[in-house]
# Entry
Amino acid sequence: MGGPREVLGKWLRGLWEELFVLLTASAVWTVIGLGPALLLFALGLAPLGFIALLAALPPMTIGVYYVTNRLAHDYVGKFSHIFEGARLYARQAWLLAVVNVFIVAVLWANYQFYAPSEEGPRIIGVGGAELTIDPSSTWAVAARSILFSIALVWIYSQLYALPMLLEQKEPNIWFAMRNSLFLAFGSPALTITLSVILFILGFLVLVSLPQFLRWLPFLLILPAMIAFLTNIAVVQRLKALKGETKAGEER
# Structure
């Protein structure tokens, strides 16, 4: 129980059985979570667009995870549960979003500092001294490798973070990210399977962009599909670790 086969089987069955709920959740996420920001970006109001994105997207994202978490537990999932989850976990969702934005910014700035350049070595003034940065040097290559490793750890700390948050009696994003890492590296077969699926879904998104309208149904359901998959993985794995053999009853 909790292996890749069980997780994928439950996910594929759930996609068919809960199709309407998943479509509804993704539509709400798109319209409320992304809609205002996209409109502001289209109007050339980028600063306001970023503010709207940070204000609306995290609560709507946790709302989608909340309703799909219920489905993963074989509970009833309703339209109202999206907003219930957004209300209950908005603070944690905003905090996690701010932390992630900060981490991405730090990683990107550091990568740019050590990134290969056609201009060759760069000279940077540090106080009264000069520091020469040669991107092809051994220490610069080592620094990029370390950054890549840190980025990989950060990605896997996010893979199961929101489902883990919803499984806690007292929600804590730091414990959620820590437990996500434990699950990611403690269940390599499951993590590799999910990574491959997410890679395929990401590839399909890139392929679909030139023919947006033809792929619209797939793009609409995609956010809830991903949330549902990671929730099932966490719920099934936790049940396996606890020695449970069946899901809870409907509530």
